[in-house]
Amino acid sequence: MKRLKPSFPSSRFKVLPLNDRHQRILRATVKSYIDTAEPVGSKTLTRQYDFGLSPATIRNAMAALEEWGLLFQPHTSAGRIPSDSGYRVYVDELLAPPTQLIQQMRQALSDYLLEERHQGLEGLLQSAARILASLSGCVALVTVPRSALARVRHLQLVGVDEGRVLIIVVTDSLQTRSFLLDLPSLLVVSELELLNNFLNAELYNRTLGDLSPAWIDELCHRFHQYADFLRTVSTLLKKVLQPMTGQVFISGVGEILRQPEFAEPERMQSLVQLLEDERERLSLLITPSDTHEQVVVRIGAENPLEPMQFCSLVSGTYCYNQVPVGSLGVLGPTRLPYDRAIASVRATAEHLSATLALAG
Prior knowledge:
β1 and β2 form a beta hairpin. This protein has 360 residues and is α+β, with helices and mostly antiparallel strands. The protein starts with 19 loop residues before the first helix and ends with a helix. The chain is elongated, with a radius of gyration of 26 Å. Strands 7-3-10-9-8 form a five-stranded antiparallel sheet, sandwiched between helices. Strands 4-5-6 form a three-stranded antiparallel sheet. Strands 1-2 form a two-stranded antiparallel ribbon. 45% of the residues lie in helices and 18% in strands. It has three domains: 20-94, Winged helix-like DNA-binding domain superfamily/Winged helix DNA-binding domain (Arc Repressor Mutant, subunit A), CATH 1.10.10.10; 99-146 and 246-359, 2-Layer Sandwich (Beta-Lactamase); 152-241, Heat-inducible transcription repressor hrca homolog, domain 3 (Enolase-like, domain 1), CATH 3.30.390. It has helices at 20-36, 42-48, 55-67, 84-94, 99-113, 120-136, 192-203, 213-222, 227-241, 253-256, 265-277, 279-285, 338-359, and strands spanning 71-72, 81-82, 139-143, 152-161, 164-171, 176-182, 248-251, 296-299, 311-320, 323-333. The protein contains 13 helices and ten strands. α1 (20-36) packs across α3, α6 runs antiparallel to α13 and α8 runs antiparallel to α9.
């Protein structure tokens, strides 16, 4: 058997003597338990799979898998269920690449989210979280793009009436913000287009770091009659370009709470509280430490937060100009369909990356 290659760096398992029989029985046990949430016995495997083995031989193999810590019995009279280590071996060694599933989900995302790229960043990410939850059957989490390097793409001044002006700011990460300000008494509507063109020329591709006090003073000096107005605009721009942390769009909570693993009220409440109150910590957790991995899987105790230690988290990043700018993931019980979770995260990350590239 090949050496295990965990997809989460903190997981370390010794090389186990799993022959082909052990591998087939472990794979079948995991799949059966994922499908039914019921402990799996040798008779169940004999009935469901054509191993060409007697129930006694299967029992002996399951006993060996239990001895190695890959299966365990929740009760002495029950069948066996996978341990966190068993799921890890399944994910790293026994799960076939979900190539066809990824393609199906790419198509589903394309069909569902075709129009979302025209509705701004927030609409895109909310819809992506909703569809990701639907595709995976888990809680979906999508972070907003890190905007420390966000750049101004476009600014528009629109006269609303004689006394007010609407300012619309668009960044290169699809973020759109609008503000309503009083029109300076010295600024007539006929000059609005001139000022609009001036600001677009000066602000295009500027980052938060570019809006230094010295640069703003220079800008106000060049249009000194509108200095107060320009300082107000620069303050608003800083808010738009300010890095956002902890902002996570979440969908699918209701579905996952119907799973039998969350039948205990205490366990359910701890997870709901985590999703409601710990979004900043979650946003950090779903960002893979190794951004070269397309998808990272954390299983059970590999998750550092206690309410997540009976769950699995499958996460990845989406990019802008091939640079990771945001992350997404799905959270479910350790008994989750890993092939579907991995495929849905891969496809959604690819879709968001492609949408941001088109917007750029």
